[in-house]
Fold this protein.
Amino acid sequence: MDISIIIPLFNEEESIKELFNWIKSVLTRQNLSYEVIFIDDGSTDSSWDVIEKLASSEKAVKGFSFRRNYGKSAALHIGFAQATGNVVITMDADLQDSPEEIPELYKMIMAHGFDLVSGWKKKRHDPISKTIPSKFFNWTARIVSGIKLHDFNCGLKAYRNKVIKNIEVYGEMHRYIPLLAKQAGFTKIGEKVVQHQARKYGVSKFGLERFFKGFLDLMSLSFISKFGKRPMHLFGTLGTLMFLAGGIGSVWIVVSKIYHQYNNLPWRDATEQPLFYIALMSAIIGVQLFLTGFVAELVSRTAAERNNYQIDKDVVGRQGSPQAKTRPPHKGPKRPQSSEKPEIKKTINKPVHRAKTSPEKPAEAGQAQVRTQQQNPVQDKKPQHRPNRPQKRNLNIKPRNPENQAPKPE
């Protein structure tokens, strides 16, 4: 399979069929094998009926429907799990993303070696209420993530298959898939200017609140990526600074009071100075941050993903070579060398029919039994138990020789 196209949608009944026909015409001209995966995110219109009709007539169509609206990240998560193509394309169902961009995106992944290519809607057909917040949001994401992309939130993206299989999209993290890919070790991230079209049917399903949620998600993702497995480095550092600030303030108050008393200068009680309360609160906050770091460290140590590391390549030396001798033995479960699953032969318990044996030539079953006994003589040899018989006593008692007896003392 060359391309898997994932299309999350919510109440887009008018544009589904038109979008699929457009995709079909483009990829047929390019002679590319493809599949189109529609994810219905709890639509309340007849979007699912349209998907079912398409699936009944088109072999390349797959569809999944949620019981309720979970969000775009959940839809992409399901689509990524079902995708089998070498290149995975994500796009919106509102016809604002042009399928004419798909062949070029596919070429950038397969020929130019990119792991991820993000679209850039340089010329947008959106109102100013969406363009200005989007520019500020993308600028913040570039600063925090260090990825030089102009449009993080563009729905038209291309991925290498192994990228989507090694990341987990949850919550509202679909805006930061490039950052998730970078954290997973895929650093070849590119960008392509794509055509953006005006919405033809319906209205936008996103409001201004997505920018506030997106900023909070960006902070959360940045924190998890840096301190997810070492939270004490953050909380311990902040706690140390706050505790030192409180300690320095307290020492200053004590030294200042002693100095004023020694020189007979007017002085104020410590409780009358604002610095005393600032120092006290700083020390308390520092201790709390330390305790928070300890608790977070305990939680991270007991997490199931604490040793979840992604291996890109593996190599094993030949038997008998110096490299193979120096490599420590593998203690875990053995993995198949190929990507195919090992075949498991099923065994069925049937009655065994023994062949008739002749005195000249024993049957194969008999031979196998004798051979087994010869190979494992210790296992097949059973101890023979003899019946307990009463031991016979020797009643023939010889009389003592009087000559051999010692003489009795007189």
Q: What stands out?
A: Strands lie at 3-9, 34-40, 61-65, 87-90, 116-120, 157-160, 189-193.
